[in-house]
Amino acid sequence: MRLQVIHRPQHNAATKGHLVLIHGACMGAWVWEDNFVPFFHQLGYEVHAISLRGHAGSPNEKPIKWTSIMDYKTDLLQYVSTLEGPIFVIGHSMGGFTIQHAMNELPSTVKAAVLLCSAPRHGLFGLVMKLILHYPIGFLISLLQMSWLPIMKHPDKLRRVIFREDFSSDKMATVLPKMQEESFLAFLQMVFLKLPRLKRVVIPTLIVGAEKDYLVSERDTRRMAAYYDLQPCIIEGASHCFMLETGWEKVAEKINAFLAEHGTRH
User: Fold this and answer.
1) Cα–Cα distance list, 223 to 49, 55, 97, 234 (Å)
2) Which helix (H) or strand (E) segment is 87 a member of?
3) What burial letters (b/e) apply to 12-30, b meaning 16+ CB within 10 Å?
4) Model pLDDT for residues 232-244, shown as the tens digit of each residue
5) Tally of structural domains, the chain
6) Which sign does the torsion angle of CA 58, 125, 99, 221 carry?
């Protein structure tokens, strides 16, 4: 399957390697395009932001609602297999959950991974309880329709669940039309149906969380990091989709420092 990819190649021999960016639920490669793609490209990485099947411009052979996390894992594994290392993978939210499922099958050319506000290995049951408490009618509608668009297409609700309160209306106007349907099956798998069996991380891994994250709480991020025996990096004042918020550069710099330090696995 040919995926939509925002690709920024390097045209010299001094490239630091391939950086593969995997988006979260209801999004696509576009979420990285304005900030992370040019930032890491300028630093010397050959950058690949992929849209998983059924997202943005990537085709899908079945309805998006019934696409599995295993399908997304296949997309990731097949794409990195086409690259000659070194390779670094960064996954946001559902993308981080996908990396956890794929980690034991990644080729040795993948030198390090970064999980950004990743859906945790113990599942998103806490989020379900929060949605029932805060949006009981919207949650019921989403269940009946098997769709999260009633929440993700509402500007006030979207701001609360993935952005900070100060996220501008102008930026919201550019993001909202791009938010799309997501796999209901994948959501159930992130809650409890298909949790990663990964016992420990097998490559250098950085876990990044956000203090103000509604979808993946700081507590969930710390719990996941403790399971993998890692020290998480919690971004003060940030929300779930901090790649699009002011201050994203600080996060990108932390990631770059981690990749520079841990990107030498052989």
Assistant:
1) 28, 30, 14, 12
2) strand 87-92
3) eeeebbbbbbbbbbbbbbb
4) 999 999 999 999 9
5) 1
6) positive
